[in-house]
Write the structure tokens for this entry.
Amino acid sequence: MFDILPRHLYSVAPFGAVPAAAPQATAQTNVSRKADVLVPIRSLGENHRARIARHLKALDVHDRYFRFGFAANDEQIDRYVNGLNFERDEIFGIYNRNLVLIAVAHLAYAPDTGANPSAEFGVSVLAQARGRLYGTRLFERAMMHARNVGVNRLYVHVLSENAAMLRIARHAGSTFVCDGAETEGHLTLPPATLNCHLTELVEEQLAQANYQIKLQARQLRHTLSNLQSAWGGTDGAEKSD
């Protein structure tokens, strides 16, 4: 559907079987989860391109297959990342305390959809960060942003065996069409509300602040590490004297 965003986009290993169809087609805002804990999800820009590439290259062969629909090599990942259009699409990310990009979502807008604007969602989560509902949170953030910019239909294209992504989209109310090894899901989004706009604004500001705190903490750790190394070198020199 979109030439910039490959199909079969979710990078979580398959588990369990998921039905090919869901009974609802309108987005549900109360996706069930274990705890309502704020996850700092921030918009990513041009200056994050290299980190996005490192994130995708950290996926193993199986996860790359789920992410792109084929076992993309590093060169193909570089081409995909270099083709990201940060002015047109939205890229969201979750950083850990060491500023490693552990989860990335791509919301790609369909060109020339006229009165029915639509977008496609894709996401990847590093293996060590799974089981924390990051994929669900990124899907919710993408839905919220899509509503706020006037998108009324959200699509996901996945492998039929990708139970994790199918579960996320199904809980949000997606309708699925299964065609052999591939499954397409679509979700009708309600119009944005004032609360929807304000919520995204607040969440983005909190995520930006969280990123800056992590950045300053990392710089402080590096400074302390350098001081400890210098002190250790000084002590060694004094002992040798």
Observations:
- The domain at 42-232 is CATH 3.40.630.30 (Aminopeptidase).
